[in-house]
Amino acid sequence: MQRSVLAIAVISATVYLLSLGPHLWAGSAVSDATFQALSCGTCHKPDKKGSGPTLQEIARAYVGKQEQLVRYFMGESIPLIDTGKRKTMERQLSKTRELSDEERKDLASYILSFR
Ligand code: HEC
Fold first, then answer.
1. Residue 35 sits in the same domain as residue 4
2. Ligand 1, atom 18: nearest CA belongs to which residue?
3. The domain containing residue 57 runs over which residues?
4. In three state form, how does the secondary structure of 5-18 look?
5. Are residues 12 and 43 in the same domain?
6. How far is the CA of 89 from the centre of ligand 1 (A)?
7. Whether residue 49 is found in the same domain as residue 35
8. Do 39 and 82 belong together in one domain?
C-alpha cells in the first residue's frame, strides 16, 4: 500500500516537471525568428552538413567573437570558414544587411547558442 502511494507521488512529480519543461526552455532559448524568416535553415542545419557549414561549426568558429559575426552580417568582415562557396553566402548577406542592429544581434546570439 505505502509503495503504491510512493509510486503515485513519484509519477505525479515527474509529470509536473515534464509539464514545466517547455516553459523553462522558452525562457532560456534565444529566438530563432529572424533565422526562420530569412530561410537560413535551408543551407544551415544544427549539426548535419547542408549546403553551408553547420550552425555548430559556425558557433565554434565564433567563440567570443559575437561582434565580428554581427559585422559579418553587415558585410564588413570576411568569413572565418572557407568552404570555397563564398559567393553563395554573399548573396544572403544582402538580407542580413537590411536587418536592424537589434535583429542582427539576435541572429548572432541564436547561431552562437549551438556550440
Ligand atoms: C543557399 C545556401 C545558403 C543560405 C540560404 C544561407 N547560407 Fe550562410 N553560408 C552558406 C555557405 C555556402 C557558406 C560558406 C561560405 C564561405 O565558404 O565563405 C555560409 C556561411 C555562413 C556563415 C559563416 C561565415 C564565416 O565567417 O565563415 C554564417 C554565419 C552564415 N552563413 C549565416 C547565414 C544566415 C544568417 C543566413 C540567412 C540569412 C544564411 N547563412 C543563409 C550558404 C547559405
1. no
2. 86
3. 31-112
4. HHHHHHHHHHHHHH
5. no
6. 4
7. yes
8. yes
- pTM, entire model: 0.82
Nearest CA to ligand 1 atom 40: 40
**3-class SS at 98?**
coil
**Grid cell at residue 73:** 552580417
What's the pLDDT at 9? Answer: 61
Q: Binning pLDDT at 50, 70 and 90, where does residue 12 land? A: low
Judge if 89 and 101 occupy the same domain.
yes
Planar angle of CA 73, 76, 81, nearest 5 degrees: 65
One domain, residues 24 and 75: no
* Total tally of structural domains belonging to the chain: 2
Ligand 1 atom nearest the C-alpha of 82 is 17
pLDDT digits (tens, 9 = 90+) for 24-40: 444 346 789 999 999 99
- The rounded distance, in Å, linking the Cα atoms of 110 and 29 is 8
- Name the residue among 96, 1, 107 with its Cα closest to residue 62: 107
